[in-house]
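Hi everyone,

Forwarding the result from last night's run.
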Amino acid sequence: MSKGETLLQEEKLYIMTTKKLSGIYTITNIVNGKIYIGESLDIYRRWHKEHIPQLRRDCHYNKELQKEFNKYGEENFRFEVLERYSEDNPITTKAKILILESYFMDSFKKSGICLYNAENTLAEILKGNKIPEAGNTLVCAIVNVLSNYAIKECEGFVYFEKYRTIKNILFDYVTLKKKETRALVIKEFEKYLEDNGNNKYYYVRANPVYYVINGKRIKQDGEVVKKDMIQELEKMAVLFSEYRKKEQKEKDVQYNKNVSDKKQYEPMKDGEVRFSLLFKEFAEKGILPKDYIYDRVREYMVHLGIITMKNMDSNGGSKRVTFVTDDALDKGILRIIGCKNYGDSVIYSYVFTVDGIEYMRKLFSSHSERKNLELFTYTNVA
């Protein structure tokens, strides 16, 4: 069976799978035998929403894996489930698969197998150098699972079936923009609270990590975080949401002023094509299916990082507006030819450049990319 057939089967399995598969997986270079070991609570999602798209787009965080993926080609990499593991409690599951991942990494190294992994996640967490999504509670869970580690006190949130860490609660309300990090946004939010005389909530940077509300640490209380603490966290999340909306509105007003001070954009040039018309032309030429759904193709452009979309309000109405990404502008795929006010913000008119048209033609002429589009369209139909 070819590598392409294997991946296609996995993609179909990923689409059909409703129950998440958690455990340990490997990405193996079948030419030189080098292996990447990973863990996930949802392995198929990790492969088909993260690893594979990132590797194909040449933006994977593991530089060594990306370099050899480019050198040897996708057909020479095999994705396999090494060990399945699942419990009812996701935090306990996460803790145990991190321990399993560390075990396999050590075992493979002792056997002389070269790994792409640059760090041992478990070791980094226990050293206090890396606090993943589950925050300090995950550290507590790991410590409780490992027989050769013990700590006397854990501060953190432990009732994760229903409630999560403060950062995850806060970031349910917002989407990070380019070059923004959670740490930076939290820091700005804390300054905003301080400047406005509201220092009721503040973040203590320490190891282990915990939050303080009304001057009291939120501590482990059996297996449940007290209800009044949860209510306080929810209030903080609403406050955070209001802060982000206010901050963005102020940025939009300033941006409008900056835009108005700039010279006019150059008008459309020969050979350039508007966004919607290009896909219609591609369908007529057989590059896209004749029954393609424009909204699905547009959403796929978001998936590729060429555009972004967001809902915008104006005059009591709302519409989903498309924005070109900095990356697409930098690569010369799209070009802005004008702008206009929409409510309190600015929306743009843009076109595919001649180079951008050729880029898209090559992209959709690729069998694998056409298959990706079909799969993406299928999985996103309501």
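Residues 166-261 form one domain.

Cheers,
N.
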